[in-house]
Amino acid sequence: MLKKFRSSFSVAGTDEAGRGCLAGPVTAAAVLLPRNFRYALLNDSKKTSLKNRNILKIEIERRAVCFGVSHVFMDEIDEINILNASILAMHRAIEKLSKCPEHILVDGNRFKPYKNVSHDCIIKGDGKYLSIAAASILAKTHRDAYMEKIHEEFPMYNWKQNKGYPTLEHRAAIKEFGITKYHRKSFRLLPEQLELDFNSKY
Question: Which GO terms describe its molecular function (predicted)?
């Protein structure tokens, strides 16, 4: 059962989506919930149906004290690596909060201090704390919406379905059509990575 982080401080949860993808941004959200927030459907985004995620997105954005969402795109991921890009996305999401939190709950085990705000890293925190679960929902839904949008530009990769993750279908499309401006060149896109044409017309 998800719980609130018991503190007299204002606490924001943060999480990211898309870290393991071959294409598209890594997206993070930060959410500061009201102290009395309760919603039965709220859970880790990976355990929540598409229908319920979309319901939750509306409810979280309507009822949160404040929230922020940020994308870090492919060129920056390739330049600083995916771990640093994930942390940067979380920092940028926190920066967008209209109220600076006094404490931050981070999903996972790696983070860099944000300004002078204290933080805790919580492994599998999106299944433990409401604010992290809320951030996971917003990160996932905002990133999915971005991938569905760019799917229209390159439908052969079927990003509206696989969202850029390394499915067999996605890798087969990379092998057939090459890469696009949305692919992460620093990632192992195919087993025969060295043979991949980075001068793709896309």
Answer: RNA-DNA hybrid ribonuclease activity
